[in-house]
């Protein structure tokens, strides 16, 4: 996976650079502002994922997202933020962002979020989702799924990719995909994000 991170905080860029350098499947470039990100995409793209700090110079809120979307070479674009509201998260997703990533995420969760978005999914932390007044309890969901499907759902709720789940359960990635599709159908959800939110609202993690 080829990832570009644009953030104006030197310490954060250095920290993310060290984090990504430890991952064999992630190649990361880091730049300090929106214009440099645009130049880098044009010069060195395509990137599987571009992470943009919503508060850095040149972004002007979510306007910068639109600018980057117009450049060829940024397959998916996620928003990186230190302090933002649920409203902004929803606006970012509605504007076509691949995800909304708080800088406060633990390292493992951030890596999972990056892989999740690179896999074509939309990432939104459960903390940013307004919980339904009546979330289905654990046993109600468990009764709808086969034991292996329920186990897969627990991993999905943690933001893990099909490849990671397959390795942990010692099955093929194709088998995991079959289970995930069955989970979507049985829980009446459209994607992994919805399934993860439903699971976490029910206390399944």
Label this structure with key terms.
Rossmann fold; LuxR family two component transcriptional regulator; Arc Repressor Mutant, subunit A; single chain; alpha/beta; 50% helix; DNA-binding; 2 domains; 205 residues
Give an overview in words.
This protein is α/β, with parallel strands linked by helices. It is built from ten helices and five strands, in the order βαβαβαβαβαααααα. Strands 2-1-3-4-5 form a five-stranded parallel β-sheet, with helices on both faces. α3 (63-69) links the parallel β3 (49-53) and β4 (77-81). The chain starts with a strand and ends with a helix.
The CATH architecture of the largest domain can be named as 3-Layer(aba) Sandwich
Helicity range: 40-55%
Low-confidence stretches: 130-135
At CATH level 3, the topology of the largest domain is Rossmann fold
Oligomer: single chain
List the helices and strands and how they pair.
Elements: E1 2-6, H1 10-21, E2 27-31, H2 34-44, E3 49-53, H3 63-69, E4 77-81, H4 86-94, E5 99-102, H5 107-118, H6 138-144, H7 147-157, H8 162-169, H9 173-187, H10 192-201
Parallel strand pairs: 1-2, 1-3, 3-4, 4-5
